[in-house]
Design a protein that fits this description.
CATH topology of the largest domain: Nucleotidyltransferase, domain 5
CATH class of the largest domain: Alpha Beta
Oligomer: single chain
Number of helices: 6
Number of domains: 2
Strand content: 25-35%
Shape: globular
Helix content: 25-40%
Structural class: alpha/beta
């Protein structure tokens, strides 16, 4: 199975081309908010490096967030464009899981924390059960005090939210808090691709109608529609 993994959820553009569980080519570039202008040229470069073409791909694996609103929209729009031209499959993976997967062998609970701006943080707790990483909490948007209240035992933290709250977590949680190396705080496209491949093998591809960014809104946010 040949897959193209695409991650535009943060300030790093991540791409990986896989054949089954073998990574043929991968790229991570710090691009801030310029994903739109470079995404397709970088994808073409990755395919050329791997010796594949769009026609040879079986599908796409896309990080749908939470994360950068602009980046996620660009990723979704780009893949929708590809799917309108090429009859390929799609697998949608959440960013918090992709980052948690950087800790391959941790026996501790894993907490991914991303900066959602305005003193909010995207949050999810994971636990490795056998060889499978499972969410043991909901995907939530929390204030730091709410986040701290969710931690009950020894937990290893990762994610760019630590740039803001690492010291506070140390102070409030003490020995309960462990911290992954900073290089593991961001999604890696090869991890995204491998998660997607394994899930496709078990579940098949997702419905293309579900191809939307995964946004988490604050509790006080209400959405109304005009009649």
């Amino acid at each position: 199975m040949k897959l193209l993994a695409i991650d535009t959820s943060c300030d790093f553009l991540g791409l990986a081309v896989l054949e089954d569980e073998t990574v043929k080519a991968s790229l991570v570039n710090r691009l801030d908010r310029t994903h739109a202008s470079v995404l397709i040229p970088r994808i073409k470069e990755m395919l050329n490096l791997s010796g594949f073409s769009f026609d040879m791909l079986d599908g796409f694996v896309l990080d749908i967030g939470p994360g950068s609103f602009t980046g996620l929209r660009i990723g979704v729009a780009t893949v929708k464009g590809f799917l309108s031209v090429y009859k390929k499959g799609i697998k949608l993976i959440k960013s918090l899981e992709v980052i948690a997967a950087n800790l391959n062998y941790s026996n501790l609970d894993i907490c991914t924390v991303l900066d959602a701006k305005k003193n909010n943080f995207y949050f999810c707790l994971f636990r490795r059960i056998g060889e499978t990483l499972k969410p043991i909490s909901k995907y939530q948007l929390l204030k730091v005090e709410e986040l701290i209240s969710k931690i009950k035992g020894q937990t290893i933290f990762l994610g760019d939210g630590l740039l803001i709250i690492k010291d506070l977590l140390k102070k409030r949680l003490g020995d309960k808090a462990r911290f992954a190396d900073k290089e593991l705080w961001y999604p890696k496209p090869e991890k995204l691709g491998l998660i997607g491949y394994k899930r496709i093998k078990k579940q098949g591809f997702d419905n293309k109608k579900d191809l939307l960014p995964f946004y988490i809104y604050p509790k006080e946010c209400t959405i109304t529609t005009l009649k």
